[in-house]
């Protein structure tokens, strides 16, 4: 057994079998044709327990490996499908400037990549309650949105009728249960605020703005007035509340949703808050 690697050596010792008789499935090493088995976790424990070691075994279990995906991707945003439990990562390749989303089935294993060769990169993404994924483009001169429909094998553009508005590229996206919510990094073309987000009604591959919500920051951490709470790079909507980082005021603020206006609460002394998410706490 001197030619065996340490993991094999201790597995064969624990199962009292030869290498040709060992099978691995569902996290367990088994002796073919018998009920003898040992879990990977138990193998790791035994490797650090001298009473379990075979003769000549020096103890410990140290292995490493490198995973190389089929295609490079730079993840920016993520979302979990409420229908399937799949995990989506939105981003792109830093080498060929091609936007893609990586879908991990049940949030594990190697992903399936879906690309849009016409877009440089995706920024944020969200699922609706039917398992359709939406991702906004980043790095484009104008706003653009893609959809990976539930069961589809390709990304398709969503044509959003902006009306009199001008949505900037690169804002956050979220599903609120009825509408797709789009953040506008430049506040309808203005860098001076207010921060603007839009409710968008979807019908097939088209969308239309049904409500414009403006967020004002009130006062900064220094007590000075400020119209613009900051770029809605990643806000979070929870019920009738929206939380958004105060990019220019070092904090976060809470507004009524979908009312907007001035915040109901400011939380300062957070340095360069960029994105935010919430988890439900027990009552």
Description:
Strand 16 and strand 17 form a beta hairpin. The chain is elongated, with a radius of gyration of 26 Å. The model has no long low-confidence stretch (mean pLDDT 82). The chain has a domain of 47 residues. The chain has 283 residues and is mainly β. The protein has 2 helices and 21 strands.
Number of helices: 2
Helix residue percentage? under 10%
Mean pLDDT: 82
Please give the order of strands in the largest beta sheet: 8-9-10-11-15-14-13-12
Order of helices and strands: HEEEHEEEEEEEEEEEEEEEEEE
Structural class: mainly beta
Rounded Rg: 26 Å
What's the overall geometry?
elongated
- The span between the termini is 58 Å
Unreliable spans are none
**Biggest sheet descriptor:** 8 strands, mixed
Query: Into which percentage range does the β-strand content fall?
Result: 35-45%
Number of strands: 21
């Amino acid at each position: 057994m001197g030619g065996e690697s340490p993991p094999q050596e201790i597995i064969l010792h624990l199962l009292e079998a030869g290498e040709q008789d060992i099978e691995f499935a569902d996290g367990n090493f088994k002796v073919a044709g018998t009920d003898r088995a040992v879990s990977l976790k138990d193998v790791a424990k035994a490797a650090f327990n001298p009473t379990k070691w075979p003769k000549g075994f020096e103890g410990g279990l140290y292995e490493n490996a490198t995973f190389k995906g089929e295609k490079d991707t730079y993840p920016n945003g993520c979302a979990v499908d409420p229908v399937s439990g799949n995990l989506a990562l939105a981003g792109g390749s830093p080498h060929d400037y091609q936007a893609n989303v990586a879908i991990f089935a049940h949030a594990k294993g190697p992903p399936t990549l879906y690309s849009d060769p016409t877009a440089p990169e995706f920024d944020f993404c969200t699922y609706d309650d039917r398992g359709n994924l939406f991702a906004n483009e980043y790095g484009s001169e104008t706003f653009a949105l893609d959809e990976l429909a539930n069961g589809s094998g390709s990304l398709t553009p969503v044509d959003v009728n902006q009306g009199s508005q001008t949505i900037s590229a690169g804002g956050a996206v979220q599903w609120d249960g009825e509408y797709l919510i789009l953040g506008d990094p430049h506040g309808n073309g203005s860098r001076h605020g207010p921060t603007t987000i839009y409710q968008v009604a979807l019908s097939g591959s088209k969308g239309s703005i049904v409500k414009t919500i403006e967020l004002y920051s009130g006062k900064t951490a220094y007590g000075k007035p400020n119209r613009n709470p900051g770029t809605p790079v990643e806000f979070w909507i929870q019920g009738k509340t929206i939380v958004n980082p105060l990019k220019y005021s070092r904090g976060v603020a809470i507004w009524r949703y979908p009312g907007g206006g001035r915040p109901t609460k400011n939380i300062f002394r957070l340095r360069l808050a960029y994105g935010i998410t919430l988890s439900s706490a027990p009552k």
